[in-house]
C-alpha cells in the first residue's frame, strides 16, 4: 500500500522536475541565441561600416579604430597619372615594376595608371595590371596615324628603309621600324591621346625598371606646389650616329621662332659652346615626370611639327630623349627643371642610388651607392648641378669612378 503511494509520488515528482528543466532550458537557450544573433549583427556592422563611431568595450574601455585606406587617395591629389607604353609580351617584365612603384609610392596616393599599346591589350594583361595598381586603370590603343610612317607625298620611304638597313649594326635598334615609331610617338603624339591629355602631370614608367627608395611625399604635388615642370633621375650622352642632323634642324627652328627661346634657359646644360653645337647631354626619358601643358604648348607643338617634317625620326634614328631634353632646356625656365636625388631608380644598365647617407637610410633605399650614375663621367647630371648652381652632396667626389668588379 505504502509502496504504491510512494511510487505515484515519485512519478509525479519526476514529471514535474522534467517540466521545470524543459521550461528553464527553453528560455535560457533562447536568450543565448538572441545574444549570439546580436553579436553577429554587431560584428557585421563593424566590418562593413568601418569608420562609424564604435562604442568602447565596457570591459576594457578600448575602442578599436579600423584603418581604411581611402579609395581615391587624399583630398590634395593632383590631376596626374602614370603612363606606360607596353606590348602584351612585356607583362612579365612590367608586373614587378608596377609592384615596385606601388610599394614605394603609389599605394599611399592611388594615382591613375594609363597603359598604352599599338595593339589591343589581352584580357590576361588587363587582369594582371588591374590587380597590381591601386588607382584607376585605363587602357588605350594608339591610333594608326600615331604609329606608322608619315603619309605626306614628300616622305621618301626608300630613304627611310635604306637608313634602317645601314644602321642595323651601328647602333642599338638601328634596324628597327617599331623602335622609330615608338620614339616619334613619345616625341610628339602620346600627350595628344584623350586618355592622357586630360592630366596636368604624367610620370612615365617602363617595364623592367625599379624604384630603389621609399617615396613618402606626393611627388606630383611637390612639382605643382614648387612650379616644377620637368623631373628626371638620370642623364647621359646620346649616341651621335642616331642624330647627325638633329641640332642643325633645332637651330633652323630657333632662327624661325626666336620668341620660344626662354630667357632663363638651360642651354649650358646641352651645349658647351652657347648653342653652336649640341653636347649630346639629355635626360633619360624612360623616367620622366612632365607637365602635360608644356607638351601641349605652342612652342613644343611647333617644335615637334618642325622636326617631324624633316623626317629625322626615319631618315635617322632620333630618340625621344634628346628631343624632349632639347625642348625642356630651351623653352622652359631652368628653375622649373628638377633633379630627383631621393627616389632611386634603375633602368638597365644605369642606377640612380642616393649617395647622401641620410636620404639613403631615411628612404630605406635598396641599392649600392657605388653604382650611382649621378657624378660618373658618362652622366651629365654633374653638369646639371654646376649649371643650376646646386650644392653637391658631401663626398660626391668618391662616387665619380665606376667600380671595377664591384670594388
Ligand atoms: N606597344 C609597344 N610598346 C613598345 C614597342 N617598342 C617599345 N615599346 C615600349 O616603349 C618603351 C621603350 O622601349 P625600350 O625597348 O625599353 O627602349 P629603350 O629603353 O630605348 O631600350 P632598352 O635599353 O632595351 O630598354 C617601353 O615601355 C617598351 O615597352 C612596341 O613595338 N609596341
Ligand atoms: Mg627601356
Question: What do you see in this structure?
Answer:
The protein has 407 residues and is an alpha/beta fold. It has a domain at 80-339: Spore Coat Polysaccharide Biosynthesis Protein SpsA, Chain A (Alpha-Beta Complex). The chain has 15 helices and 12 strands. The protein has helices at 2-48, 91-104, 123-132, 157-167, 177-188, 194-197, 219-225, 246-256, 267-270, 292-295, 298-309, 312-315, 320-331, 357-362, 381-388; strands at 80-85, 112-117, 137-141, 201-204, 210-211, 230-232, 235-237, 281-283, 288-291, 337-339, 345-347, 350-352. The chain has a 7-stranded mixed beta sheet. Strands 5-11-12 form a 3-stranded antiparallel beta sheet. A two-stranded antiparallel ribbon has the order 7-8. Strand 1, helix 2 and strand 2 form a beta-alpha-beta unit. Helix 2 (91-104) packs parallel to helix 3 and helix 5 runs parallel beside helix 13 (320-331). It is elongated, with a radius of gyration of 32 Å. This is Glycosyltransferase family 15 protein. GO terms for molecular function: alpha-1,2-mannosyltransferase activity. InterPro entries: Glyco_trans_15, Nucleotide-diphossugar_trans.
Write the layout of secondary structure elements.
Blueprint: H1 2-48, E1 80-85, H2 91-104, E2 112-117, H3 123-132, E3 137-141, H4 157-167, H5 177-188, H6 194-197, E4 201-204, E5 210-211, H7 219-225, E6 230-232, E7 235-237, H8 246-256, H9 267-270, E8 281-283, E9 288-291, H10 292-295, H11 298-309, H12 312-315, H13 320-331, E10 337-339, E11 345-347, E12 350-352, H14 357-362, H15 381-388
Parallel strand pairs: 1-2, 1-4, 2-3, 6-10
Antiparallel strand pairs: 4-9, 5-11, 6-9, 7-8, 11-12
Bound molecules: guanosine-5'-triphosphate and magnesium ion.
